[in-house]
Amino acid sequence: MKSLQSKLWAKITALLLLTVFAIVLFFSGFGVLYLADQGGYSNPEGFAEDHIAGNAFYSAMNTAADYYSAVLQQSSGGSGSALSYYEQQFSRENSNFFFTVQDDTGKIVFESSDQDETYQYMRSQEQYLSYNWRDVVEDDHVFASEEEYQTYLDSLQKQNFNINDAYITEYIYADETAAASQTETSVSEALVTDDTEAEAASAPEPDEAGAVREVHAYISYQRFDYQHVTITGYIRSPLTAKDDIYQESYYSNLLVENRHVLIAVAAVSFAVCLALLVFLLCAAGHKEGVEGIHLNWVDRIPLDLYLVLAFTAGACLLAFGVDLTNSSIAIAIFVIAVLLVFAVLLVMSVLMTLSTRFKSGAFWKNTIVYRCLCLLFRMGKGLKDGLSYCAKHLHLYWQAGLIFVGVSLAELFVLAAFSRSGVVVIWAIAKLAEAPLLVLLAVSLQKLKAGGEALAAGNLNESVDVNHMYGVLKHHGENLNSIAQGMQKAVQQQLKSERFRTDLITNVSHDIKTPLTSIVNYVDLLKKEDVQPEKAKEYIAVLDRQSARLKKLTEDLVEASKASSGTLPVHLEAVDVNVLLSQVSGEYQSRFELCKLEPIVKLSSEDPQILADGKLLLRVFDNLLSNICKYAMPGTRVYFTSEVQSGRVSISFKNISNYPLDITADELLERFVRGDSSRSTEGSGLGLSIAQSLTSLQKGTFDLVVDGDLFKANLSFPLLNA
After folding, report:
1. Rg of the chain on CA atoms, in Å
2. Dihedral over Cα of 53, 58, 59, 64: its sign
3. Residue 347 phi/psi, 5° resolution?
4. What does the alpha-carbon distance between residue 689 and residue 559 come to, in Å, rounded to a whole number?
5. pLDDT at 650 exceeding the cut of 90
6. What is the mean pLDDT of residues 292-317?
7. What backbone torsions phi and psi does residue 235 show, to the nearest 5 degrees?
8. What number is the average pLDDT over the span 122-146?
9. C-alpha of 699 from chain center
10. Closest CA to 32 of 266, 336, 333, 250
C-alpha cells in the first residue's frame, strides 16, 4: 500500500474511481431518500400515482390556466400568438392531460380536446383569469389636503385599479379670491413612485390668516377584467404520449421497482468512496523517487487564497447547475452528473492539498494572513529594536536628528503661514510615518558600516544582521555575509590543501619505503648466507611481490593523476550492466572463498544498458571488489545489486567492515586514505578515489555511505534511450 501511495497512476486511477462511485452514490442515495420521504417503501403500489398527482399534475394545471388565459385574450381582441403553442402542447399526440373550464354556473365553457378516451385521475382548481385591459383613465382632482389625496388613492386600489402614474402640485393662496383667480404664491411638486404612497414637499405656512391651501393631483390608472372559473384536469389511462407526465410515471415506477437495489448500491458506493478517499488523503504529498512530503505548485498557493478560489468555483458550478437543471429529467440527470464530476475533482483538490499541507507542517504558515501578521510583527519588532539601538547609540544620529527637526520646523512654518489647518494635520501624520522609516534606515546603515569594518579587520565570524532590513540595504548586507563565508571557505580549503600535501608526502614515503626496505634487507641476506636453491626461490618471491606492489603503487599514482585531470581517453559505447557485473563477480569468486565472504548478486530483470567505457567501468568494479576483499569482515555476506529507477541505473556494493569506520565518507574518497588507520593492509589508498574519478568521466555519479560498520558504494548512470 505504501508503495502505491507514491505512484502517479495509482492516484489518478483512485481519483477516477472515486468520481464514478461518487456519482453513483449521489443518484442512488438521492433515490433512497426520495423514496423514503414520498412513501416508496411503505406504499410502493401507490407511489407512482401519488408522485404524478403531486408534481406533474399541478404543473399541467398551471399550464392549462395559461392556455385558457390566452384564449380569453384572443376573444377580447388581444393577441393570440401563444394559442398555437398551447394547442400543440395539449394535443392528443403530445399530451396525456385533458382539462375542462367551468364558469360560476357550472357550465363547461372550454375543453382542451375531445374527451373520447379513458382518464384515471381528476382534480379541480378555482382560478381568477384576467382577459382584458380597460382603457386608461386620466383624471385631475383638487383636494384640500394631502390626506384627502391619499384617501382617494386607497379607494382606487380597493377597486382593483392599477395606478400607472400620479403626482401632486401644492398651491397656497392668500384668500378665496386669489384661489379663484389661481394666483400662485408657492409651488412644490413630487412624483409618486408606487401604488400606495404619495409624497408632497412641505410648503411654508401662509402669512395671512385667510390663506387657502389646495392640492392639485394628476392620476392615471387602469384595471383588468377577471373571470372566475373552475379548471378540472384529467390524466389519460394508459399513458400514450411522451410528455412530462409520462416521464414522471416512468422514472417513478423505475425507482419503485429498484428500491431495494438502490440501498445495496448506495451502501457499496459509500464504502468504496470512503476507502478511496482514505487512500488519496494518505497518498497526498507522496511522490515516486522523493523522500518525505513533496509540495507541488498547488500546495504552494496560499491556503486562504486557494480556498477563496475553490469556493468561488463551487458557487459558479452551483449557479450554473441550478440554471441548467430546469429542463427535462434526462437533461437534468446529465447536467447533474457533469457537475458532480467537477464537484468531486474540486473537493478532492481541496482535501488533498489540506492533507499535504498538514503533513508538511505548512498548514498555517502558507497563508496570506500569516504572512501579513509576520510582516507586521517584523516591522513592529524592527521599529522597537531600531529605537532601542538608537537610544544606545544616540551619539551616532544627533546630526541627522538635528537636520530632520530643522527641516520639519521650516516646513511647518511655511504650511502654517500659507495653508489651512487640514494640510498641517496631513503633514504631521506624514512626519509621524516618516520618523520610524528614518530610524530603520539609520539603524540599517550603521549595521552595514559595522559589518564592513569587521570584514576589513579580518573578523570573518562577524555577520551582519539583516532580519529588519529591506530592499537594497538587505541585499547589500547579504552580500557582505556571503563575502565573509566565501573567505572562510577559502581559508579552510587552503588549510585542507596544506594538510593534504603533508599527508601525501608522509603516506607516499611510508608506502614506498616499506617495499624498498624489504628489498634491501633480503638482498643483504642473500649476500651473507650460503644460498641454497629453495631458499633463494623464497627470497626471490618476496622480492618479486614487493617489487610488484611498488609497481602497482606507481601505476595507481599515474592513473589517479590522469583521471582527476581528465586526460584519460574515454570510449563510450552501449554496455550491459548486468553482464559486466556478473563477469567481474565471477572473476572474484575464488578470492571471495579465500576471504570467507558470501557474495549475493541481485540483478535487475530489465537488463539495463548504459553509455559507458567498458574497460573503465570494469576497472571501477574491480577497485570496489578489491576494496571489499581487503576490508570486509570474514564470514559475512556482500551484496551487489542493479536497479532501474526514474530513467537511471543504480548499482550498489555493500559489505560489513572488518575495521571500525571512524571516518566519514568524504574522507574515504580522498587520496591515500585507508579504512584501517594502522595501514596494516596492502593498498595505496587510491582505489576509491580512482573509482570516483573514472565514474565522473563516464557521466555517472559515485557516492559512499558509512553507517556504523556498514559500507555502501552507490553508482548511478543514465539509462540508455531513456
Report:
1. 49
2. positive
3. -65, -45
4. 10
5. yes
6. 80
7. -115, 130
8. 72
9. 37
10. 266
Across 64-147, where does the E strand assignment appear?
Answer: 97-102, 108-111, 119-133, 137-143
Mean pLDDT of 586-602: 91
d(CA 7, CA 4): 5
- In the chain, the amino acid numbered 309 is L
Quick one: what percent of the chain has pLDDT higher than 90?
8
pLDDT tens per residue, range 176-210: 666 555 433 333 333 333 333 333 333 445 444 55
Which residues fall within 8 angstroms of residue 44, CB to CB, at 6 or more apart?
A: 256, 259
Q: Which three cell numbers stand for residue 256?
A: 419503485
Domain layout of the chain by residue ranges: 1-96+242-283, 99-238, 370-470, 471-562, 569-718
Residue type at 97?
Answer: F
pTM as predicted: 0.38
Q: Which residues pair with 220 in a beta bridge?
A: 138, 165
| 113 or 673, which is more confident | 113
Cell of 716: 548511478
Instruction: Please tell me the distance from the alpha carbon of residue 26 to that of residue 269, in angstroms, as a whole number.
Output: 9
In terms of residues, how long is the chain?
Answer: 722
- CATH label, 471-562, candidates 3.10.420.10, 1.10.287.130, 1.20.120.80, 3.30.390.50: 1.10.287.130
C-alpha 481/C-alpha 484 separation (Å) is: 5
- The yes-or-no verdict on residue 3 having pLDDT over 50 is yes
CA 659 to chain centre: 51
Q: How far is CA 489 from CA 476, 668, 671, in A?
A: 20, 21, 21
Cα–Cα dist 461/474, whole Å: 19
pLDDT at residue 324, rounded to an integer: 55
pLDDT of the residue at 196: 35
Phi, psi dihedral angles at 455 (to 5 degrees): -65, -40
Mean local confidence (pLDDT), 38-57: 69
- Least confident range from 116-120, 144-148, 552-556: namely 552-556
Cell 548586507 found at: 477
Separation of alpha carbons 46 and 35, rounded Å: 12
pLDDT exceeds 90 at position 716: yes
Say if residues 200 and 218 touch (Cβ distance below 8 Å). no
CB atoms within 10 A of CB 457: 9
Query: Is residue 391's pLDDT more than 80?
Result: no
The larger pLDDT score, comparing residue 624 to residue 440, is at 624
Three-state SS for 287?
strand
Give ∠ CA 206-210-216 in degrees, rounded to 5.
Answer: 65
Beta bridge partners of 712: 654, 705
Q: To 10 degrees, what angle do helices 259-283 and 244-257 make?
A: 80
CA atoms within 13 A on the CB side of 130: 7
Residue 694 phi, psi dihedral angles, 5° rounding: -65, -35
Neighbours of 483 (CB within 10 A): 14
User: Does the pLDDT value for residue 567 go beyond 90?
Assistant: no
* Spatial separation of the C-alpha atoms in residues 646 and 7, rounded to whole Å: 12
pLDDT of 270:
92
Average pLDDT, the chain: 75
Q: What secondary structure does DSSP assign to 326-346, as a single string?
A: SS-HHHHHHHHHHHHHHHHHH
| Cα 578 from chain centroid (whole Å) | 43
Give SS3 for 548.
Answer: helix
The listed range with the strongest mean pLDDT (107-121, 202-216, 534-548, 556-570) is 107-121
Strands 637-645, 598-602: parallel, antiparallel or unpaired by DSSP? parallel
Assign a CATH topology to domain 569-718.
Heat Shock Protein 90 (3.30.565)
Domains 471-562 and 569-718 share a fold: no
Spatial CA neighbour of 712 closest among 653, 664, 643, 670: 653
Report residue 226 as a C-alpha cell: 377577471
Measure Cα distances from 148 to 151, 155, 535, 674 in Å. Answer: 5, 11, 150, 117
Percentage of the chain modeled with pLDDT above 70: 69
